[in-house]
Amino acid sequence: MSRPKSKSGEKPPLDRPAIRLKINIRADMLGAGKIRLLTLLGETGSISAAARELGVSYRRAWFLLDTLQACFREPLFETSRGGVGKGGSTLTATGQELVRRHQEFRAALDEIAEPYLDWLESQQSGEPPS
Amino acid sequence: MSRPKSKSGEKPPLDRPAIRLKINIRADMLGAGKIRLLTLLGETGSISAAARELGVSYRRAWFLLDTLQACFREPLFETSRGGVGKGGSTLTATGQELVRRHQEFRAALDEIAEPYLDWLESQQSGEPPS
After folding, report:
1. Least C-beta-crowded within 10 Å: which of A1, A13, A104, B108?
2. The domain that contains B83 carries what CATH number?
3. SS3 sequence, A34-75?
């Protein structure tokens, strides 16, 4: 029986042991949620569209981006007001590299974790309480 | 400038990005703290000595062990009352295998994480606020 993932991608199904990865950087914690937010920002070109996709408020998305940005020397994204047309946000080269490196690391981690997670799954107690 | 680790081993120095790993298993989260508690229990043969080493109360250590144990089918440790002599606690084969597998996985993870953490460190903003 599989449970749906939350929109932020942070909560795995309970029936299979799952890795939750966070990286302490300066005073912030970088994990799947913020990487997904950056990815969505890059895909949609808009903080509000990215927030909507992630299922968080615009204020919350802005807060997450702002606290993450404070940990980095270079901008991770840029927002333009535009002229007559509406403005938009784009990932900078640094922002793109962060997303790419994080995803590559996570994929490599998931691969080496398989035998351990298989063993944990084989050892865990019966069905979780519903 | 390096900051000391906390006794639980969970808080890394702030000047180097660091990975914080948790594994969701059933309703619990398994991380460095509980693995260290099990390791100390195996080394000292005593929950209270392990708690003291970890810098937590006996009640807290027992709670951590109890919630972790509830996720597993087989016992992770055994406690004997003993007769005239004092009792003691030992890790079972399953408990020992959990510690070994976790530490091996963590070591492999730390190895593949190096290039990403190096890059993050090179990109992070100036000195953290003191």
Report:
1. A1
2. 1.10.10.10
3. HHHHHHHHHHHCCHHHHHHHHCCCHHHHHHHHHHHHCCECCC
